[in-house]
Structure formats: structure tokens, C-alpha cells
Specification:
316 residues, mainly alpha, two-stranded antiparallel sheet, two-stranded antiparallel ribbon, 12 helices, 4 strands
Length: 316
């Protein structure tokens, strides 16, 4: 009988020799497997050891959304910011096409929110300490002619440019500070936040409309949103007043400290508006309308009245 195993054992061997050769061959194979645990006798192919198998990924090889390289790319902050910007642009463009006039409004408002940290810091300093500033005129980016209004620089390039970021943020901060003040006195209710917000917004709206009427009578072209921006800087002073009053109330000097702070912030707001309007109202106005100098002084004095009216001192 022929033997298809180890070629050194021929078919001429007897049954005993054949059995002895077969057993020796099996024993040698077993010893080799024990010496080499990565050896697979069934397939005659070397396999990875247990330590090597633990380092191999258990997922199938191929493109996958859970690929670490892909996850690392999506985890990059620059890539995330780019995707968020593209998503927001897609949503806003879609909404702008659906709602009539929304696209024009977004383009207009975008210039009032083009701010950075440097601009905000400079603006806060200019509003609270206007006596230290020497430049008040806005920077002109493009001038087409006397019959066309000039194109001004964005707030990021000009600290004298009006913005709506600081007025809106300070308004929200002031409303929250009022709620904290009411809560500290044990008089907080859910109606405090909408009441304070409505009072501030209606007061500012009436102020802007009155200024707009004066500009219309003078035939002075001033943007409506510019007036909302200039009159909204008063909320910064209101926040400072309330913070000073709340901190001084721990020493039983809350009301006195509030009025000391009010004298400074109200005077600063009036001076800020005086210099701003004096450099933004055209020098040539209608002869039949009110005097330019009188309008500037009235607008500046109105800041004292509005800050006094909107200020919350009931629970200081």
C-alpha cells in the first residue's frame, strides 16, 4: 500500500513499520504545533498570534463612515466650522428665497453685526469714556458723488461705525440684571422680564421716531438702523449702573452708588450722542426745518431723560 505522507517512508515497509512511521510523523507534527502556536494544521497556513490579533481592527477592511481617518477629519475644528458655515448659508439662502424681502434685510443687517473683539472693546471704551476720544467721523470706503450717499467702512474697520451687536447684547444683559435685582428682593415674577424688555424697547422706539421726524424736517438723510444703534448704547450705561447699585447694596449704599454711577454714565451717553450726531448730520440742512445745532443738543439731552426713565432703582 502506497503511503502519501513523508516521502522517506516507502511502500515496502511492513505494517508494523508503517504504523510506527505514521505515529512518529504525527508526533513530530504535534510537537511542531506546540512549538509554534500560530501554526494551523488544518489549512497549513501561518496565522496571527493572539497578541497580534488583538492589535488588528475587528471591522472589515474597506471604506466606512467610522474610519478613524474620516473621524479625525470631521473632528478638526476648521472642518467643523466650514461645514457649519456652509449649512447656515444654505438654510439662510433657502429662507431668503421663500420669505419676500428677507434677503435684502439680511444683507442690510449683516453690516451691523460685522464686529470682532477689538471693535467691541474700543466701542465700550468710547461709550463709557467719550471724553478721551478725539476722532468721531466715520471712515468713508467709497464716495460716488454728492447725489449718492457714501459707502462707509464696516465696524471691524472703523470704531465709529454703528453696530447692533453691542446694543442687543447689553439690552439682554440689562433685562437679566433687573430680574436678578427683583429676585434678590423677593419680588421676582415671570412678568418681570417681558415688562422690562417692553419698557426699554418702546422707549427706544419712540425716541428713534422723534429723532427721525426731526431729521425729516431738516431733510437730513440718516439711516433708520443707525439711530437704533446710537440710541441703544445707553443700555451699556444702564448695566453699569445696576451692577454698581447691586454690589453697593451689600453695604447699604446701593441707591447712593447707583445715582453716582448714573451721573457719570448719563453724562457720557449725552456727550457721546452730541459728538456722534454733530459728525453725522450733514452741515447743509433745510432752511425751513429746525436748526441743526438745536436738534443735536435735544438729542443729547434726551439720553439723560431716557436713562432716568428706563433705570430700575426700586429694589436697590
Amino acid at each position: 500500500m502506497a503511503y502519501y505522507g513523508n516521502p522517506q517512508y516507502s511502500s515496502n515497509a511492513g505494517d508494523g513499520n508503517h504504523f510506527y512511521a505514521q505515529s512518529a510523523y504525527n508526533n513530530s507534527t504535534t510537537s511542531q504545533q506546540q512549538q509554534h502556536p500560530a501554526y494551523n494544521s488544518s489549512s497549513w497556513q501561518p496565522q496571527a498570534t493572539q497578541q497580534q490579533q488583538s492589535t488588528y481592527p475587528s471591522q472589515p477592511i474597506g471604506p466606512s463612515i467610522f474610519n478613524p481617518s474620516v473621524a479625525g477629519a470631521f473632528g478638526n475644528q476648521a472642518v467643523q466650522k466650514m461645514m457649519m458655515d456652509q449649512g447656515q448659508a444654505f438654510v439662510l439662502e433657502g429662507m431668503a428665497k421663500i420669505v419676500p424681502g428677507l434677503e435684502v434685510s439680511m444683507i442690510t443687517l449683516r453690516a451691523y453685526f460685522a464686529v470682532d473683539n477689538q471693535y467691541v472693546l474700543k466701542k465700550i471704551k468710547k461709550v463709557l469714556f467719550p471724553f478721551l476720544s478725539r476722532t468721531w467721523s466715520r471712515q468713508i470706503k467709497q464716495y460716488a458723488g454728492p447725489d449718492t450717499p457714501p459707502l462707509y467702512e464696516l465696524p471691524t474697520m472703523d470704531e465709529n461705525a454703528p453696530d447692533l451687536y453691542l446694543p442687543s447684547m447689553t439690552l439682554i444683559t440689562y433685562v437679566l440684571l433687573c430680574a436678578i435685582c427683583y429676585g434678590g428682593a423677593g419680588q421676582f415674577s415671570p412678568e418681570v422680564i417681558p415688562d422690562v424688555t417692553t419698557k426699554c424697547f418702546l422707549t427706544q422706539t419712540l425716541e428713534v421716531l422723534a429723532i427721525r421726524v426731526g431729521f425729516y424736517m431738516m431733510q437730513a438723510p440718516v439711516a433708520f438702523l443707525d439711530l437704533f444703534s446710537y440710541t441703544g448704547y445707553k443700555y451699556l450705561g444702564l448695566c453699569v449702573n445696576l451692577l454698581v447699585g447691586m454690589m453697593a447694596s451689600q453695604l447699604e449704599y446701593g441707591t447712593k452708588a447707583y445715582y453716582v454711577s448714573f451721573c457719570w454714565t448719563a453724562t457720557a451717553a449725552a456727550y457721546f450722542m452730541l459728538k456722534t450726531m454733530a459728525n453725522n448730520i450733514p452741515l447743509e440742512t433745510s432752511s425751513s426745518g429746525p436748526k441743526r445745532e438745536l436738534v443735536v443738543v435735544v438729542i443729547a439731552a434726551a439720553q439723560l431723560a431716557t436713562i432716568w426713565f428706563v433705570g430700575q432703582t426700586k429694589f436697590l
